[in-house]
TrEMBL record:
GO terms for cellular component: plasma membrane. Pfam families: ABC_tran. This is ATP-binding cassette subfamily B protein. Residues 200-349 form the ABC transmembrane type-1 domain. It is found in: Cell membrane. InterPro entries: ABC1_TM_dom, ABC1_TM_sf, ABC_transporter-like_ATP-bd, P-loop_NTPase, Type_1_exporter. One of its GO terms (molecular function) is ATP binding. Coiled coil: none annotated. SUPFAM superfamilies: ABC transporter transmembrane region (SSF90123), P-loop containing nucleoside triphosphate hydrolases (SSF52540). Keywords: ATP-binding, Membrane, Nucleotide-binding, Transmembrane, Transmembrane helix. Its main location: membrane. The chain crosses the membrane at residues 200-221, 233-251, 310-327, 333-350, 415-436. Residues 509-707 form the ABC transporter domain.
């Protein structure tokens, strides 16, 4: 297949043995590469290793993230249009080659060739290469069908296309790896790489031009009126200057919108990633109320910071342009000194307001937290707390909140209402020496104009400040969320992810001298703990309440990291193996109160740890395990069977049903080691027997935590 440049598509692709080079070149061309690169690990670019593993490791080495995506047959063009920068795998006579996609459109794609040149190819050619093998058998069948149906020659191509789309709609094509910056990079670096800083500079320049034209217009009118030259020519020039401002005003608004959307997207991405990476212990420590407050804070950061930030930026530009007006007019240096004193005063007041608002926010958060805790624990309180105690302490808390609210609101009113007006008073007072000194009318008028413009800028700045203040306080609370480990994650070892299961009796898990202390506790929950697990073992871990069994389970599953000691899986520690690979090897059903039924279908809740959308064989296996766990009557009872929505807003599952769902979810992850933490506690003897048999049958290696 020849492309526009005369090369064949195959010649423009990178061979498999240059996969890592293609990745680096593409990252460099897309401006994604970072200064620091991690050292190459032995075996890190072993061409024999699986493609996905090699791409993942290669990307980690240059500090990028890669997402392997598969899309439906009909969505392929859309993917190619928006995937760049990405690597796309094509097959030529059974040989894998890779397209380095720099940018994409519906008609043309831009590629980076192994000669490091960019070439354009027809999107259709790439799609045809990707889907050729899939379409071939269908095409013959469809051709035959169209002939038999007597469809006119001219309409056959369209009909064949529609039939192909119809019959292959459910096929997925997984041949694309999207290159992305890790969302943990500093925000400014992400903004720079997206070119947001240029747009921001454009915004400042555009607003400055508009403002200069505005000043020029008024200067023109001032000179004309005060000089007695108010003829139509001067007036026309003034009108012209007013109209010239319009494109700049439009450009400023447009750039503001673009910067808002791009920065907002980056902030959202980062918040979402940070929320998913948060240590579970931290979330638990926060409680549901504080979590909800964080969600509100996240909303505030994006909307208030951007809106407030823009207003402050525009106010700074206007104040900056006002400085030469004041300096050149009647007030001169004395007027500028007055402005400097005023700005100093404004900074002190703003800082004070920040402290007052922070105090108010802390009280508000604690009130929200308390309220939500009470709502969540409503049933317990109804049943077990005397009604006289239901509202204990609420008045005191509310009183404290009101006090800080009044103090903050008063200060805010002073700031927004008084500060801009105090500039008017100070500015006019600063003119007194010039007035007494007999300055000319024109110079005095220019100074007065400068004072009024300053008033406008301060007013704008104060409105911006009120928004930015909310964002800054929300940021203070969210900072820890944002503090994603930007340090490079150690490149995982070259253990192929799809390695065959270890043989029975082979060492699987090795733990020695493990120590773990919760941050809010003085004594460690685990000290000098050791454990050996071999493939095929069935281990029952018993201990008194609070002895640290669940903590050990959390260390083994990787939810917590030991403070000290050695924990190896297949002879590798967690950082060598990588979090992803560790999770594939160990599956767990956490204790009942730590586990959750998500508001999705029953099937999703079963297979969320496997892969979603599910493969046919996974669904079959899920059915089989549910049957063995005695869940068949439940599936028959639910109107939509496996597809019934469950969770808080859906079909309510009983305690025992949930326990068995959690067990099935752990077994369906196909892990080498399954850890069940008190998963059988809620089961009646019959279901307990079924569950134990099922677990013994399906778990390759089993660690069960239970009370004696
Ligand atoms: N998130 C946490 N923050 C602080 N301390 C914790 C946390 N989780 C557990 N602990 C403490 O660590 C110790 C061990 O708890 P762990 O849950 O591991 O015990 P356990 O043996 O599983 O208990 P049980 O059989 O009652 O479930 C306990 O003293 C507990 O209070």
């Amino acid at each position: 297949m020849a492309t526009e440049s005369g090369d064949t598509l195959q010649q423009l692709c990178w061979p498999e043995d240059q996969l890592e080079a293609a990745l680096e070149a593409l990252a460099h061309r897309a401006g994604l590469d970072s200064a620091e690169t991690a050292p190459e690990e032995p075996g890190g670019s072993d061409p024999a290793a699986d493609i996905d593993g090699r791409i993942q490791r290669g990307a980690q080495r240059i500090g990028l993230e890669v997402e392997a995506v598969s899309v439906g047959y009909t969505e392929l063009v859309q993917l190619l249009t928006s995937a760049a920068p990405a690597l796309v795998r094509l097959r030529f006579a059974g040989e894998d080659r890779f397209l380095a996609l720099c940018s994409g459109g519906r008609r043309r794609l831009r590629l980076l060739t192994p000669q490091l040149e960019t070439r354009r190819v027809c999107t259709h050619d790439v799609v045809a290469q990707l889907t050729g093998d899939l379409e071939k058998p269908q095409r013959q069948r469809i051709q035959q069908l169209l002939e038999n149906a007597g469809i006119a020659e001219g309409r056959r191509a369209g009909a064949a296309r529609a039939l192909l789309d119809e019959s292959l709609a459910h096929e997925s094509i997984g041949a694309c790896w999207l290159l992305r910056q890790p969302p943990g990079l500093p925000l400014w670096r992400q903004m720079r790489q997206k070119g947001v800083h240029w747009k921001l500079a454009g915004l400042i320049a555009s607003h400055a031009c508009q403002y200069l034209l505005f000043l020029l217009g008024w200067w023109l009118i001032g000179v004309a009126v005060l000089g007695g030259r108010a003829d139509p020519g001067w007036f026309a020039a003034w009108v012209l200057l007013l109209f010239t401002q319009i494109p700049f005003a439009l450009l400023t608004t447009r750039l503001q919108g673009i910067v808002s959307v791009e920065t907002g997207t980056l902030i959202k991405k980062r918040l979402l990633t940070a929320a998913l990476r948060m240590a579970p212990g931290k979330i638990r420590h926060m409680g549901s109320g504080q979590m909800l407050s964080r969600v509100f804070d996240a909303e505030n950061i994006e909307s208030d910071a951007l809106h407030g930030g823009f207003l402050i930026l525009l106010a700074v530009v206007e104040l900056g342009l006002m400085v030469p007006v004041l300096a050149l007019a009647a007030g001169g240096a004395f007027h500028l000194a007055t402005l400097a004193v005023f700005l100093l005063f404004a900074v002190v007041l703003c800082r004070r307001q920040f402290l007052l608002r922070s105090r108010w926010t802390d009280r508000r958060l604690s009130l929200t937290h308390g309220l939500i805790e009470k709502m969540v624990g409503h049933r317990t309180r109804l049943a077990q707390q005397p009604p006289a105690d239901w509202h204990r302490g609420e008045d005191r808390e509310l009183g404290g909140y009101l006090q800080s609210a009044i103090a903050s609101d008063d200060a805010m009113t002073r700031l927004v209402a008084l500060l801009p007006r105090s500039w008017l008073v100070l500015g006019i007072a600063g003119l007194i020496p010039a007035f007494v000194g007999g300055a000319q009318g024109g110079a005095l008028a220019a100074s007065l104009g400068g004072i009024l413009l300053g008033y406008r800028a301060v007013l704008k700045g104060m409105h911006g400040f009120t928004n930015a203040l909310n964002a800054a306080i929300a940021w203070r609370n969210m900072r820890e969320l944002f503090a994603l480990e930007t340090a490079r994650v150690k490149t995982p070892s070259s253990i192929p992810p799809g390695r065959p299961a270890a043989e029975r009796g082979q060492p699987l898990l090795y733990a020695r001298g493990l120590r773990f202390k919760y941050p809010n506790k003085e004594r460690p929950a685990l000290r000098d703990c050791g454990l050996n697990v071999a493939t095929g073992d069935r281990i029952l871990l018993q201990g008194t309440s609070g002895s640290g069994k669940s903590t050990l389970a959390n260390l083994i599953t990787g939810l917590h990291t030991p403070d000290d000691g050695l924990l190896l899986l297949h002879g590798y520690d967690r950082s060598s193996l990588g979090a992803h690979q560790w999770r594939r090897l160990v599956a767990s059903a956490p204790q009942f109160h730590e586990n959750h039924v998500l508001g999705e279908s029953f099937l999703f809740n079963l297979l969320m740890g496997d892969c979603w959308p599910p493969r046919n064989e996974s669904v079959q296996r899920a059915y089989a395990i549910c049957r063995e766990l005695g869940l068949e009557p439940l599936l028959q009872k639910m109107p939509a069977g496996m597809l019934q929505t469950v969770g808080e807003m859906g079909w309510q599952l009983s305690h025992g049903e949930r326990s068995r769902l959690y067990i099935a979810r752990a077994l369906l992850q196909n892990a080498e080691l399954v850890v069940l933490d008190e998963s059988f506690a809620a089961l009646d003897p019959e279901n307990l027997r079924l569950a134990v048999d099922c677990v013994k049958k399906h778990a390759r290696t089993l660690l069960v935590i239970a009370h004696p």
